[in-house]
Amino acid sequence: MATTSSLSAAGTRLRCPCDWNQSGNVSLQDIFDFLAAYFGGNADYNGVSGTTVQDVFDFLGCYFSRPFPC
Amino acid sequence: MMPRTTTQSHAVIAALLAFPATGLAADNFAFTVTPAASTVSYDVTASAPFSGTMQGDTTATPATRTKTGSFSIFPPFVNCGTFGPTQNDPLNISGAISGGGSGDNIRPTGSFTLSIDTVAFTATVRDLSLNLLGGATASVDAGLSNFRYPSFCAVNPSCAVPFLVPISLTLGTLDITAITGQQSGGPASGTLTAAVGGGFDFSIPATIAVSTTASFNDAPFPIDPQPLPIVFTGRIVIVGNTATATSNLNLRGTQPHPRAHAQLHPFRGGYDLVAQRRRHAIALSV
Predict the structure, then answer these.
(1) Do B108 and A7 touch (CB under 8 A)?
(2) Which ipTM did the prediction report?
(3) Does the residue A26 lie in any domain?
(4) Top-ranked range on mean pLDDT: pick from A19-33, B54-68, B145-159, B254-268
(5) Confidence of residue B260 (pLDDT cuts 50, 70, 90)
(6) Mean pLDDT across chain B
(7) What residues in A contact B132, CB-CB < 8 Å?
């Protein structure tokens, strides 16, 4: 079996979810900015049920584990 | 709830400070194949040995019946003996199920993630997943080759058929409904070079598991996945937060093998086994 493929693909940039301030790197500043958003009620990190304490846990989980694409 | 002590707070802050700030080493893009701008051509040959039985089809009109004969050196070269009034014996057969064909202008679908590091000049592909037929069906002619059967006798039409040489029978089409490739072995890395005219060229050795989904005579024709080493080459051009990637990907594997003991539906039809324009109603079970 042989196949010859000419592929064209459209892509979008993946951002690290714990690069909260989208500076291009993950630093302590992201935590400060995230907490500021959290206390402002605007830190629905996980997209579930609005801003809850679970968002803090999930954000810190990302911050410490640095999953792809971080 | 116990109030957090100053020592505990300091420990938390120390942990945060101790964790290093990291720059995002690579630019990561999630890609989706654009079917309208992509094409696949295929050339498939498949062959697998089989053994089974051939028997007169008593549900046909007229109903053919069969029995094993013995070869004789004198015409008609087969001794049939007495044919019982309802006798219809299965005859052991063997050969190869084979098919082949080609097609083009198929629109593939798929996705992958490409990470490029323009400092280290490396590129990494993850989760490469392609459906090369993109929902289309590739149909190739299929049949039995090197078909061997014992000398036999038949009624309706009455015939004594000596086995002389293996023959071929066309049975229909092998319909291939999917040829998928899934990257295996985790992320794969290769080289990245700046391309003339903008963008970057990537070349990444990887392994994909190619799975073929096919049916023969309306029965599933299971084929084992095949790991194939590939070199995923192409060009990525980045514009802001979007990118386009183009790639030419050639897969060249060994012929697909049906899984052992694949059981196909019986074939029923009129077959001219002796090239005498006398068609026997035969049921083949392979």
Answers:
(1) yes
(2) 0.81
(3) yes
(4) A19-33
(5) very low
(6) 82
(7) 3, 5
Written in H, E and C, the secondary structure of chain A is CEEEEEEEEEEEECCCCCCCCCCCEECHHHHHHHHHHHHCCCCCCCCCCCCCHHHHHHHHHHHHHCCCCC
- A 15-54 → B contacts, CB under 8 A: 16, 19, 24-28, 31
Q: Give how far B233 is from chain A: nearest CA, Å.
A: 10
**Which residues contact residue A33 at a Cβ distance below 8 angstroms, ignoring those fewer than 6 apart?**
A20, A21
pLDDT average, residue stretch B198-226: 86
**Strands B188-194 vs B122-131: parallel, antiparallel or unpaired:** antiparallel
**How many angstroms away from the CA of A55 is the closest CA of chain B?**
17
Domain ranges in chain B are: 23-285
The beta-carbon neighbor of A3 closest among B42, B126, B245 is: B42
Q: Which residue has the higher pLDDT, B57 or B22?
A: B57
Mutate which of B19, B212, B248 to disrupt the A interface (most A C-beta within 10 Å)?
Answer: B19
Q: How many domains does one find in chain A?
A: 1
Give me the pLDDT at residue A46, please: 94
**Model confidence pLDDT, tens digit, residues A29-67:** 999 999 999 999 999 999 999 999 999 999 999 999 999
State the residue range of the domain holding A21. Answer: 15-70
